[in-house]
Amino acid sequence: MKKDAIGTHQSFRKVGQKHSGLRLVKKFFRDHDLVAAKNTLSQITSSAMDRNTRIRPKPSVVLDFYLSVKSLIRGCYLLQFRHKKWRLSEPEEVASCLALGSLTPGEYKDPFLVFKSAFREYDITDFDRFIAEVSYFSLGVYDGQPGGNVVVPFIYLNKMLDAAWLVVERVEGVEGVESRRV
User: Is 171 helix (H, G, I), strand (E, B) or coil?
Assistant: First the structure.
C-alpha cells in the first residue's frame, strides 16, 4: 500500500489551474499601486538594514506585501519566456527621465530585457530569500542584519516592478486569448 504524502504548504489556488505570468502580475497591480509598492519595498529594505528601528505599518501589511511580491517574482519569471509570443504596443516617446523610472531607454522599449537580466543574475530562490530576510528583519529590532548583498536584489526588484507595470500597460491581444481559454 502506497502512502500519500500530506502537503503542509497551503495552496491559495485551484488545483490544476495553469499559472500565467501576466495573471500574477495583474493581480499584484490590482492589489498594489506601483508607487506605493516601490515605497513599501524601500521602507522594508531600509528598516531591515537599520538595527534600531522597525517598520511603521502593521506586521499584517508587511506579510501581505511579502506574499504579493513572491507571486510577482514568479509572474516576472514566467513573463520572460513570453517575449517572442506577445506584442507590446509601441512606447510613446519619453519626454522626461521620470517616465523611465529605474529603466534605461532600451529596457523601456523592451521590458522583457529586465526579467532576463534579473533572472540571469539571480535565481527565484535568491529573490525569495532576499524578500523573506528584509521582511523578517524589518518587523522587529534585531542584533543581526540580512546576510549577503541586499542592494543589487533591491535594484532588480525595483526594475522588475517598473517593467511589469509597462508590460501590463502595453500588452496587446493577450486579453482575448486568455478569456477564451478559461
Answer: strand
Listed in sequence order, the DSSP H helices in the chain are 21-31, 34-49, 59-79, 97-100, 105-109, 112-121, 124-138, 151-170, 174-181
- Asked if residues 182 and 144 have their Cβ atoms less than 8 Å apart, the reply is no
- Residues recorded for the chain: 182
The mean pLDDT of the chain is 77
Query: In this structure, are residues 114 and 107 in contact, taking their beta carbons and an 8 Å threshold?
Result: yes
Contact 141, 54 (CB under 8 A): yes
**Contact by Cβ (8 Å): 114, 103:** yes
Domain ranges of the chain: 21-181
- β partners of residue 172: 87
CA distances from 89 to 27, 109, 166, 174 (A): 21, 10, 10, 12
pLDDT tens-place string over residues 23-47: 889 999 999 999 999 999 998 888 8
